Amino acid sequence: MSHDQKSIHLRDMHGLTVRGPVEWTEEEKAEIAAIVAKYPTQRSAIMPVLWKAQRKWGWLQFDVLKLVAATLSLKPSEVLEVATFYTMFKKEPTGRYLIQACHTLSCALLGADRIIRHIEQKLQLDEHGNSPDGKFTLMRVECLAACGSGPMMQINDDFYELLTEQKVDEILDAMAADRPLPVPRPEVDQWTYTPVS
Ligand code: FES
């Protein structure tokens, strides 16, 4: 399967395809107006409006970027350069579960490569980091600011820290079975770096 076919497959699997007119609802327009009103210029609202678009459509297809640009009276290129700078903005569809595994120094010294290889093998990920069923996508990312409790990964919006192969298995098995995930919580106190009991 080519990369393009895989992308379409992922979109179809998870309803991420942007079909029909790409436009805001009246309610969303009012919400965006309230966001823009917080900033001195419309341009300053690029990131929160991009984030809102990503929440709605799952990823930032070019038509969505053009809508954000039109919404803020900017050129598409101005919005594109922001979207491409930050890895939190998705330029292609991902699985329902986006696993961002930190591989920067602290986590690397604590075994990040071993954990990442375990995830790759367990989920049988392809060269783009996607599982065969399109449910999971793995990305290696730089420091996510949980350096004292590595190895760590972020799954969608939540952090999972002090990872072991066993802990990863529990989390991924719950996801694969669509069971509730273990409740993520800080493993280490952010000021004292002592375990949270
Ligand atoms: S080095 Fe991994 S979270 Fe900072």
Keywords:
single chain, 197 residues, alpha+beta, Arc Repressor Mutant, subunit A, Glutaredoxin, four-stranded mixed beta sheet, 8 helices, globular, binds FE2/S2 (inorganic) cluster
Structural account:
There is one protein chain. The chain has 197 residues and is α+β, with helices and mostly antiparallel strands. It folds into 2 domains: 69 residues, NADH-quinone oxidoreductase subunit E (Arc Repressor Mutant, subunit A, Orthogonal Bundle), CATH 1.10.10; 80 residues, Glutaredoxin. It is 43% helix and 9% strand. The protein has a 4-stranded mixed beta sheet with strand order 2-1-3-4, with helices on one face. The radius of gyration is 19 Å and the shape is globular. About 6% of the residues have low confidence. The structure holds FE2/S2 (inorganic) cluster (FES). FE2/S2 (inorganic) cluster (FES) binds next to helix 6.
Task: Please give the structural blueprint.
Layout: H1 3-14, H2 26-36, H3 46-57, H4 62-71, H5 76-85, E1 97-102, H6 105-109, H7 112-123, E2 136-141, E3 153-155, E4 158-160, H8 165-176
Parallel strand pairs: 1-2
Antiparallel strand pairs: 1-3, 3-4
Helix pairs in contact: 3-4, 4-5
This protein binds FE2/S2 (inorganic) cluster.
FE2/S2 (inorganic) cluster is lined by residues 102, 104-107, 143-147, 150, 152.
- The total number of structural domains is 2
> How does the major sheet shape up?
4 strands, mixed
* Total number of helices: 8
Bound molecules: FE2/S2 (inorganic) cluster
Q: Name the CATH superfamily assignment of the largest domain.
A: Glutaredoxin
| Beta-strand proportion | 5-15%
Which CATH-level-2 architecture of the largest domain? 3-Layer(aba) Sandwich
Mean pLDDT across all amino acids: 87
Number of strand segments? 4
H-E order: HHHHHEHHEEEH
What's the end-to-end separation, in Å? Answer: 47 Å
Rg, rounded, reads: 19 Å
Q: According to CATH, what is the class of the largest domain? A: Alpha Beta
Q: How do the strands of the widest beta sheet line up side by side? A: 2-1-3-4
The assigned structural class equals alpha+beta
